[in-house]
Amino acid sequence: MVIKRSLYRRILNISIFTISLVMCLLGLFSSGFAQEQITLQEAIQQTLARNLQIKQAQFGYQLSEQDLRQAKSNLYPNLSFGVDNSYNYGLTFDQTSGQLIRGNDWTSSASARLSSSVVLFQGFQKVNQIRANKVQLAIDATEVDKVKNDLILSVVTNYLEAITNKELHEAALGQIKLSREQLRQDSIQFNVGNKTIADLAQAKNQVAMDDLNIMTSENAYELSLLALKQLMEVSPDTKFSIVKPDIDALMGDYAGITFEQVFADALNTQPGIKKAGQSKELALKNIDIAKGGYYPTISLSGGYGTNYSSQAKDLVTNLKAPFWDQFNDNKSFRGGISLEMPIFNNNRTKIAISKAKINYLQAENSESLEKRNLQKTIAQAILDLRSANKQYLTSQVAHQASQVAFEALRERYNVGMANSIELFTAQTNMNKAEFDVIRRKYEMVFRGKVIDYYTGNQITF
């Protein structure tokens, strides 16, 4: 019996040393919390300033800007300049001198020209294309807003998840203190013969379980912080701490919300709804562009040119005409107007109009679907908020009850009226109830922030 007790004391000393080592490591981890604080609003601002998804959407907007610029430029006349020079040996007809050249001589010729043309009328297609490009530019601007909106919700999700895991870690640290104290008392009682080996083993098992909870919550906190850092586009080695919200002050803002109020605000603020309406407007402009194919095209063109030939001669002196004299004497101007009337183009215009109308109906249906989905989502979000509020209140009652039950069982355990299994079952239930309160609390906060997301209110606390 003496050998067994000596063996158990040795095991106990090893366990206490291990626990002390874990506490030192936890102390180092806890010191990491004393870093620069980042509020939710600051995290959102850094994400919006650095996130690559926003930059990607902005590139799309810039491309649409160039498309609009090109559509406007298509209204202007074009202008081109060209020169050429050629050499011919032997028989050739000289266009400049208007004569047939025979013999074994080289003939050189040169010309220069300046030309321009402009479309005066094309069924208003170019004007409608400008209007369509303006709508597309607005769509891309809305897409940038939508990406920002979605990122804000992602930041809120990860930020609150980090707060939840941090508080779960702090609760786990508090729980292991209680378990260690119980282990210390049971060790003393075991040494004097008042507790059994089973009681001591149960106490050690509870400490080990609490250690596992600490490590699990620590890892979850680090992972949620890493996800937040990735959204903010900062280095994983960046150290900062997060700020807990004032729960009572936050939840007072959602006391009187109604579905009609939230849905009306969401229709005016949600980028997805705005984008769907703009897509329908763009489809309508594309119908006008397609209809332009039935109209005639009227174009105006003009040009200036001159040329030179080594075989050209002066009509008076019959000598070869100088280069610059020829360029001056041979200049010519031209101008013209053309009308092109479409009669039959293999039904391309008719089919283009039909497809444009189908695209419009599709865009109209997409807008209706977007509104219906928003309606369902908001209705679900309001129910989730109310449910989360009730669950939080219920979890508080359950936690208080579990605390009372644990204290009562501990008193019975200390006087030998309850066994260790009953005690540590009550402690485990109390620990779970505390964890549940923390999760329900921040679930309630998150559901409230989802309502702010849909109503367009600033998301902060």
TrEMBL record:
Keyword list, A-Z: Cell outer membrane, Membrane, Transmembrane, Transmembrane beta strand, Transport
Keyword Membrane: yes
GO molecular function: efflux transmembrane transporter activity; porin activity
GO cellular component, one term: cell outer membrane
Localization in the cell: Cell outer membrane
tRNA processing in keyword set: no
Database matches in PANTHER family: OUTER MEMBRANE PROTEIN TOLC (PTHR30026:SF20)
UniProt family annotation: Belongs to the outer membrane factor (OMF) (TC 1.B.17) family.
Identification of the protein by name: Outer membrane protein
Taxon lineage: Bacteria, Pseudomonadati, Bacteroidota, Sphingobacteriia, Sphingobacteriales
